């Protein structure tokens, strides 16, 4: 019998905290006993961390040590499960990298084909553009706008989803339809 098997059979997983700290800073001040709202808020924000019963949400159980010992009886089993999980994560990562490489290769071939077919479209697709740069029409328009509208104009980046577009919902708003709403004009 090897020594590693002896030490593993004698090894027990420790699941009890060495020292239980209590939060006493929330109850340090003497509050007036007349208003129960403050006490409820305090207990909600600063719950007791003394664990003597199971929590209703299942985040802490007193028998967690026994459950772990029953599910994973040895260190070798735990290490095997850990290595299998890391192997699975590596396989998933390799699949994602292979898919990204395939997509990148397709994009590269499409760009080569575009360059072969039409140079001007290829140059237009690869033109670098400063998203903060404004055209002369935008500068002229911004001089006649209110400050909030200028901020809206400056916040919008060309080619991206417009920020002021409303989120689609399943139900109408409480105030009903705004018939006077117009999207902010953006000169291109």
Automatic annotation (TrEMBL):
Keyword Cytoplasm: no
Subcellular location: Mitochondrion
GO cellular component terms attached to this protein's record: mitochondrion; ribonucleoprotein complex; ribosome
Leader sequence segment: none
Gene3D superfamilies linked: 6.10.250.3440
Gene Ontology molecular function terms on file: structural constituent of ribosome
InterPro entries: Ribosomal_mL40 (IPR019192), Ribosomal_mL40_fung (IPR042831)
Single GO BP term: mitochondrial translation
Alphabetic keyword roster: Mitochondrion, Ribonucleoprotein, Ribosomal protein, Transit peptide
Pfam families (alphabetical): MRP-L28 (PF09812)
Family from the record: Belongs to the mitochondrion-specific ribosomal protein mL40 family.
Name of the protein: Large ribosomal subunit protein mL40
């Amino acid at each position: 019998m090897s020594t590693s098997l002896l030490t593993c059979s004698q090894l027990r997983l420790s699941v009890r905290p060495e020292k239980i700290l209590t939060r006493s800073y929330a109850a340090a001040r003497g509050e007036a006993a007349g208003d129960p709202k403050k006490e409820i808020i305090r207990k909600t924000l600063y719950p007791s961390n003394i664990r003597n019963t199971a929590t209703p949400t299942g985040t802490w159980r007193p028998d967690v040590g026994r459950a772990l010992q029953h599910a994973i009886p040895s260190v070798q089993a735990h290490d095997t499960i850990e290595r299998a999980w890391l192997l699975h994560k590596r396989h998933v990562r390799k699949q994602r990298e292979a898919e990204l490489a395939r997509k990148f290769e397709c994009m590269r071939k499409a760009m080569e084909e575009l360059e072969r077919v039409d140079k001007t479209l290829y140059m237009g697709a690869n033109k670098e553009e400063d998203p903060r740069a404004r055209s002369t029409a935008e500068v002229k328009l911004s001089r006649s706008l209110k400050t909030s509208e200028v901020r809206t104009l400056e916040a919008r980046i060309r080619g991206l989803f417009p920020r002021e577009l409303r989120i689609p919902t399943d139900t109408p708003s409480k105030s009903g339809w705004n018939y006077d709403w117009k999207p902010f004009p953006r000169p291109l």
